[in-house]
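tool_call: predict_structure(chain=1)
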Amino acid sequence: MLSAKSVFSDKESFHHLHLLSELENLLTGNYTDDILKKLDEVIVKVRASWTFTAFSALTEPAMRRYFTHQLLFISGAPEKYFNNRSQRLVENRLTHSIITEKVCLLADDLLTYYGNYPDKTIPVAISYRQHYTKNLKDTGIKICNALEDSPVKPKITEFLKRYIEDMTDDKNVSCSLSQLVYFKQVIDELSTIIPDANSGNFPQLVYQKLIALELNQFDVLVVQQEEILREISGKPKPNQLSLLKHYTELFSYLSKGEISRYDDRWPPLSQILSDWLQEVKESLEPANHPSPSHQAANNKRLKLEFSVSHLACLIRLFFKEHLINAVPLTEIFDFFAENFSTKRQEFISAHGLSKEYYSKNQVTAAEMKAILQKMISRINQDYFPVVAAIGVTIFFR
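tool_result:
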């Protein structure tokens, strides 16, 4: 492979950022018999430009913008430009396939050697997702087969099979770069325990992998909670507290911090479980139970005319929109439990709030949406009467 120095002259080195235009012209120009040779020449220059840029004096933010732009363009090039190619190239399926593969492999190289730079939230072209996951499909099938006949909880098995099938099929399903890279991590991690599929501890190995991967999908969370509650059920309180401490330490050990995860909108799975374990522990300790006198003393609770699930949904909105600044969720739950009541519950538990917070109830969300829309209408009426009047006029037109 040519080096950056051998490809660029001193003058060209200042203009190497424009190489994508050369690639674009090649893909959108008239079809020629030597297109594959010309494409190889451009690819060598593009790779060399990456090396040149990586060792340049560019700041890290500029580097991130540069490689994000490169990846967006290259990974989306086959899908974008081949729709407008000449009929001759479309008819030549072999050439079309070779060009697509070469361009996709170029994007692979960028992720392999400079993968820390691109913005992980950018969308990935469908054709590139299909290329990227093609080599993971066989391993994914083996994982599904291992789960099929195992004692792993059905909820986990069904979710993982659906997840693997959705990411590796040929449907026109798009995803972000973060989701794509994370899926490969899931496949790589789960593939290591396929040889243990027939062992008695296979379910535990699967659960530990999911925690280490911070796979914060709802079914995974619920199964983990059910398993822990089942294990501590019926045991003396000291034993229960000891087991809760054990699991807290285990999740802390397995956690890898703020890594990529299944759903970036949720906290890492280990954090969710650790917060939940703390609440379970507090519910078992008598000192943390409010006495009747304490409850009577705290008679200044603000009563809300909706349910605990609605309150939890509202807390989620506040937290996700960063309206609550740098406060742990456990403290937020404690605050609302101590200072608010609902139309059905005079005393709210932090544990109950937490459970509703992590459950995605579409009925509750729809009801909360209707309440918020009423609030928006009220704002328009009270502060923007012209807007409200226009809305009424349009409605009755």
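agent: The mean pLDDT is 81. Proceeding to next step.
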